[in-house]
Amino acid sequence: MIARLATLGALIAVWWYASLGAGPLGVPGPIEVIGALGRLVASGRLATALTVTLGSFAAGGALAVLVGVPLGILMGVRRSIGLAIDPFMTALYVMPFSAVIPLFVLWFGIDELVRLVFTFTFTLPQVVIVCYQGAKSTPTTLVEVAKTYLASERQIVWKVIIPYEVPFIFTSIGLGVGLAIQAMVVGELLIQSVRGLGYLLQFAVASFDLATVLGVILVIMLLGAGAVSVMQRIEMSVAPWREGMSAGGGGSDG
Amino acid sequence: MAEPAAKIVVDGVTKIYRTRKRRDSFLGRFLPDLRPKIMELKAVDNVSLEIASGDFVAIIGPSRCGKTTVLRMMDGLIFPDSGQVLVNGTPVTGPRAECGFIFQDFGLYPWRTVIDNVAFGPELHGVPKNVRYELARKHINLVGLKGFESAFPHQLSGGMQQRVGIARMLASEPEIMLMDEPFGALDALTRRTMQFELIRILAAEGSATSVFVTHDLDEAILLGDKVVIMSAWPGRVKEIVPVPFPRAERGEALLESKLFAELRHHLWVGVHEEQLASEA
Description:
The complex is a heterodimer.
Chain A: H1 2-19, H2 30-43, H3 45-77, H4 79-94, H5 97-108, H6 112-136, H7 140-148, H8 153-191, H9 196-206, H10 210-238
Chain B: E1 8-19, H1 26-30, E2 39-51, E3 56-60, H2 67-74, E4 82-87, E5 90-91, E6 99-102, H3 114-118, H4 120-124, H5 129-142, H6 158-171, E7 176-180, H7 188-205, E8 209-213, H8 217-223, E9 226-230, E10 237-242, H9 252-256, H10 258-279
Parallel strand pairs in B: 3-8, 3-9, 6-7, 7-8
Antiparallel strand pairs in B: 1-2, 1-4, 4-5, 9-10
C-alpha cells in the first residue's frame, strides 16, 4: 500500500514538473485538472455524461458475460461445438472496430443501442475464448475421479467443469470490464454522440480545454482500475482456494 | 457359476495407443511431417492375470511398461483393444460401484473442503448431507485427519492430500481398491510413513481386494501378498512372486530382515533386466 502511494506520488511529481512553465496548449498541471474536474462535477455535466455512457456500456458488457460464459463452457464441454465456433470467435476478436463503427452507426443509430451493440461485440470474443480455454483445460484426473464415482455427464459438468471454471469466469469478467471501458472511449469518440463522456471529451478538445480532457481521462482510468479491483475482491471471496492453486496435473502412465 | 473363480480376471488384454504425431526428437520439432502420421504404440500385449477375493496385489515394472494401463482397464476408465477384463464375473464396460481408485496426483477438487472431497461419492448418489458427512468424518478420523475437515486441499501437505484421497475412496465402501502409484508424488520419508499408515488403515477396514501399481520395491513387498513383475514395453506378465510375510508382521522390523532383503533383490533383478531391455 505504501509502495503504491509512493508510485502515485512520483507520478504526480513528474506530471507537475512537466506542467511547469507550459503555455495554454502544453501539459495542464494537477491543480488545473482538479479545478476543471471540480467545475464538471459542480455543473452536473460529469454526472449526466457518466450515467448516459456507463449505463449502456455496462449493459453491453454484462450481456457479453451472460452470453459468453455459458457459450465458452458449452464449447469446452462439447468439443465439436468448440471446434465449429472457435475460428469465428477469433475472427470477431481481430475485427477492426474503428472500421466497423460507421456501419454500426448506420444500423443502430448514435444512442444507447449502438453503444450496447458495440460493447457487446467488442467484449464477447474475449469472454468466450477465456471460458473456452478454461473448460478445455480441466485436468483429466478431476474428470476421471468423477467418472470413477459414477458421475453422470450432467454431474461432471455441474460439479467438476463449472467449479473449475469459476476463476476463468472471473478472469473473463475482469477482461470484459477492461475491454468495455476501452470500448466506451473508442466508441464514444467514433460514434460522434451528442451526449455522454465522449461528447464531453470532444467538446473539451474542440475548445482547447486540455485540463478538462485530462480530467475526463483520469475519471475513466479510475473507473477501470476500481472495477477490476472490485472483481478481484469478489473472486477471492468466491474462490478462496484459487490463492494456493498450482497447475493441475494430467493423467500419467506408469 | 454361483461364485466367480476370481474377483478380477484379466483375460489376454492388449491395448494399443494411437497418437497423431510423433515429436519426440529434437529435429522432429523443426521438421514436422507434412501429413499427420498415426503412431501406434502397443502398451500392453496379451496380459492375463487373476486376482482372488481379499488379495493384495502389487504390479511393478519398468517405466512405461503399461502397468497403469492394466489398472485403468480394471476400473473401466479405458478399454482393451482385444481380450477382456472381468470383475465379479462380469465384463467391465465402464467404472462401477465395486471399484475405488486412487490417483497418483491425488485428484482432489481444489474448491472443495476436505470433508466435501471425502463425501464426493455419496454426494453424487444423492446421500443426504448429514449422512454423508457422518460417513466422511468416520473415514477422515481413520486416515488421521481429524480437525482438518474444513481445510482446503492447498492448505495440506502432499501426504495429507493423499490421506484425503484414501478417505474419499473408503467413503464409497468399495470391494476393490485400485491404486495408481498412490505415494509416487511424495518424498521418501512421507512415502514410508504413508505405507505403514495404509497397512494400518486397511487392517482397520477389513478385507477388500486391492491392486496397486508402484515403482517402489519396498512398497510392493510391504503391502502386497503377490508381486506381479511386468516386462518392458510392450507390457507382458513376466513373473508373479508370492510374498511370504503375514500381514501382521509388516512393520519396521520386517524391512531389516534378511528374507526381506533377498526378496527385494529378486524383484530388483527382475525389474532391472526389463529396465535395461527397455532402454536398449
